[in-house]
Amino acid sequence: MKILVQQALIYDSDSPHHGSKQDILIENGVIRDIGVSIHARADRNIQEDGLAVSPGWVDIFSHFCDPGLEFKETLESGSLAAASGGYTEVFLVPNTRPVVDNKTQVEYIRRQSGRFNVELWPIGALTKNGEGKDLAEMYDMHGSGAIAFGDGTNPVQSAGVLLKALQYVRAFDGVIIQVPDDRTLGSGGLINEGIVSTRLGLPGKPAIAEELMIARDIKLVRYAESRIHFTGVSSPLSLEYIRQAKQGGEDVTCSVTPYHLYFSDEDLQEYDTNLKVYPPLRSREMTDRLRASVSDGTIDCIASHHFPHESDSKNLEFENAQFGMTGLETTYSVLKTLLPELAEETWVNLLCVNPRRIFRMAQPRIEKGQACNMTLFNPKASRIFQSAAVRSKSRNSPFLGKELRGKVLGIINGDQLFLNS
């Protein structure tokens, strides 16, 4: 298959074509030529005013619910949602049924990945059944293709267990992904503890539950001389701890979600269950400070925290609704809408370059002779996110009906082409 991408602005700091507008000819999954004007017959021509391309984006924390919860999402529908959002590679949390805590489960996902236009990388459970007690067979899972380790939505509570895990993954330079949350604090919390939770009469979850966990885990990383990535960080004080750890030479990185940047607990006045997320939305002041940390480089990457739910899990009383929203299809547009002043190179670093660096992944290049792993997007375009355009199996998104800036056209991953209609 021949694909000709015409007059695309290239964002790839490792490419000699970075910052230039070029034609790109792809044949059978390989970039055959790059030039100002390529005259070649192609099976598919892609052209749009404002078109830009970058190496393929990576999401490091999504739930595709397969096996066991396919009524919410499948590997196929999740991959379509990822491609629609511009992602060529996605990390999958292990909280399925059964839990991805052994090499058989890892191999299942890796084998299925070959069927789709998006590369799927399982996060292996850190402990057996994700229960936080006994370490899982991480070395075997690593050998079978697990990209990182963590208990997903069940952050490890035991310092002793986490320390053993940090020491264990050093053998293969592994990374542990942790959602920072001390569950002994505000265990029944539904939203951020503060003025809004009091006003709405809902039990609160204090930010200190996150901050204590991050402070503890940084000390464990220092002791073990290992590596950890915190995802879903929502407290500015947490980011200050991470900033200090980096300055001290610790191998600590972090990511935030688009919805923690976009919404605050003030948006919960109507009890919208799509805004019931974990960790919870914080105060407006904290949200503003999170946004500033994107600009100053403290935050290493963006994680969608794509958690699809069927309507029966969301269309009920707030206290009974499940946590989570979909996010893969809206991440880029939400970021562009929130912070339009940030350079496009910044978003490419957050969505592509940094996650690949953190997790020791290959960095694709937009260069002649290279395998094609590319995201196509338009920073200048706007769109209204409509339900009819949703590729995920679930529709639990608070962004439906909203006008968002920045549009993803699709991806080219090897010889696989996906374009949004």
What can you see in these coordinates?
This protein is an alpha/beta fold and about 425 residues long. The chain folds into 2 domains: about 1-50 and about 370-420, Urease, subunit C, domain 1 (Roll); about 55-360, Metal-dependent hydrolases (TIM Barrel), CATH 3.20.20. Helices cover about 25% and strands about 25% of the residues. The protein contains 11 helices and 18 strands. The strands form 4 sheets. Strands 1, 2, 3, 4, 5, 16, 17 and 18 form an 8-stranded mixed β-sheet that branches. A 4-stranded parallel β-sheet has the order 6-7-8-9. A 4-stranded parallel β-sheet has the order 10-13-14-15. β11 (about 190), α5 and β12 (about 205) form a beta-alpha-beta unit. The two termini are about 20 Å apart. The model has no long low-confidence stretch (mean pLDDT about 95).
Short summary of the structure?
This protein has helices at residues 75-84, 103-113, 138-144, 159-169, 195-200, 208-224, 236-247, 258-262, 284-295, 331-338, 344-358, and strands spanning 2-10, 21-27, 30-35, 44-46, 52-55, 57-62, 87-92, 119-124, 148-149, 176-178, 191-192, 204-205, 227-231, 251-256, 301-302, 373-384, 403-413, 416-419. The protein is of the alpha/beta class and 421 residues long. Helix 2 packs parallel to helix 3 (138-144), helix 4 packs across helix 6 and helix 6 (208-224) packs parallel to helix 7 (236-247).
